[in-house]
Amino acid sequence: MTAPTTSMTIPPVQDETSAPFWEAAREGRFLIQRCPETGRFQWYPRAHSIHAPHARPEWVEASGRGELLTYSVVHRGNQRGDPYVCALIRLEEGVTVFSRVEGVAEADLRAGLPLAVAFHQLDEAISLPVFRPRTPD
Amino acid sequence: MIDLSGKAAIAGVFESPRRDAPRVHPFALQMDCILGALDDAGLTLKDVDGLCAASGDWAEGGSTMDVVELAEYIGIAPTYVNSTDVGGCSYILQAGQAAAAIATGLAEVVVISYAACPRWWPLSSPSFDPFVFPAGPGQYEIPYAPTLISTYGLFARRHMDLYGTTPEQLAQVAVTFREHAATNPDARLRKPITVDDVLASPMIASPLHRLDCCVVTDGGGAVVMTSRERARDLKKPPVHLVGYGAAVARTQNSQIPDDLTTPAALSGPRAFAMAGLTPGEIDVAQIYDAFTITPMLALEDLGFCGRGESGAFVADGNLTLGGRLPTNTDGGGLSSNHPGKRGIFTLIESVRQLRGEGPGVQVPDARIALAHGLGGTFCSAATAILAR
User: Fold this and answer.
1) I want to staple B271 with a disulfide (CB 3.0 to 4.6 A). Which of A2, B7, B243, B304 is the partner?
2) Total structural domains in chain B?
3) List of chain A residues whose C-beta atoms are within 8 Å of the C-beta of residue B377
4) What region holds the Thiolase C-terminal domain (chain B) (predicted)?
């Protein structure tokens, strides 16, 4: 766990569907959903499977590993502190998530950069997943 | 099924010349535009039985029943309304649906109206992406504080990686539309710029610089539509809606398709099919340009160039007067006017071009125009094809 950056100040509103995700995040685990009928993964979490709409998706722990798909460094606009990196990350399971990339100099950002999930503890209820560089497998 | 092509026409248009309207409520600006467009058509408020608006967003003045509030403010009781809000292209979508309402007898004279005053609006701006709450789907993204521009940055960066698009090619979009704005007396910015100027302007959200971004104006516009038959006898030559399509796709960044296809790939072909036309037959285009990447993806999805080829298409001068597809002839959102949802201006400038009234550069004898917009961050799209 590391300290949250100052610009991450809008807490997510948990609900019945998302509670298991945030509960796991507090324990440092990144969950995604899998369709019980097709076996396909989905992100973001929903109360139904987008692959079989009458099926209720099941939670599975993701590897937490992925690659940088694309990014934008926010220099001006919303931030109250230093520039930060908004990014799409392709997880090994094949789904794309939106998050922050941390611990990489702007000049070193590139598509395909190997990343792994880490967690920022915003408060007692919320640990927010972010992504940091990892050594390639 | 009714063949909608050519059944309805735009009879009047008006774009407010204002770009700053301090302490003017957006409804007051809308009223100026509505009266201006009705006067352009030779109609009065008494003729209006349909009202379309999407005024419930920040700096637009309305609330959740915005079209009702607006009707009351204007002082009319319309029997056809549409306040579908799919972002910046809402007014193009509303034009297509107004045409259907007119063709089926639900309405006879429909006003589509828009204004926003973001430069002075006193109520606070949302501190997060304005399109979603940090609840439901947004709880997985909003806490990271994505900005609107950074989401366009995600698209632009990936386009560069996939297709070799360069910052210089992106900048050329802004340079071209500034050339068109130079002769538009109402354009917010008219001083010519170079590619180097764009690249030297401050980085907002990489890879987009300040001059890759639209202006922020107070402004508004209105469009009057009626039947083909009624439009024939009005003050100005009618401009017929011959093609229309719309589509919505996503709001969350995680749902951006790998190849950057946007819902314009659905709206465009529907519009061309209804019109019985191909992209090569368009004389002039107005394509929503919130950021330099915005019209580039539309050019690909609408079929004006191949997937990934928009950078070269722009750099080759195709969007300039005399190019294959003169685009944003009034200076567009990048240089002329962008209060927040500028889709209505793509309709207005299309009509001006078809009448020979373009305030920026005028395409000689333009006969067929395309007005295309997107909403949000390529979340939605609407396309209209207009002909004299």
Assistant:
1) B243
2) 1
3) none
4) 245-388
Q: How far is B145 from chain A (nearest CA, A)?
A: 6
Contacts of B255 in chain A (CB under 8 A): 96
Beta strand segments in A15-95, E: 31-34, 41-42, 58-61, 65-74, 84-91
Put simply, the answer to whether A15 touches B135 (Cβ < 8 Å) is yes
Does residue B18 form part of some domain?
yes
Within-domain flag for B178: no
**Best mutation target, A69, A84, A98, A109, to test chain B (most B CBs within 10 A):** A98
Assess if residue B382 is contained within a domain. Answer: yes
CATH code for the domain of B340: 3.40.47.10
pLDDT at B384 > cutoff 90 = yes
Nearest to A44 among B140, B143, B148 (CB): B140
Q: What is the pLDDT of residues A17-54, one digit of tens each?
A: 999 999 999 999 999 999 999 999 999 999 999 999 99
Which of B258, B45, B207 lies closest to A71 in space, CA to CA? B207
Instruction: Give contacts of A74 with chain B, Cβ < 8 Å.
Output: 145, 147, 149-150, 205
pLDDT tens-digit profile of B45-95? 999 999 999 999 989 999 889 999 999 999 999 999 999 999 999 999 999
Which residue segment(s) compose the domain that B76 sits in? 8-120+214-387
Confidence of residue A137 (pLDDT cuts 50, 70, 90): low
The interface predicted TM-score (ipTM) is 0.95
Q: Which residue has the tokens 């967690």?
A: A119
CA distance B163 to chain A (A): 13
- Residue A2: pLDDT over 60: no
The span from the CA of B363 to the CA of B325, in Å, is 10
- In terms of phi and psi (left: phi > 0; alpha: psi -120 to 50; beta: otherwise), the region of B145 is left
pTM: 0.97
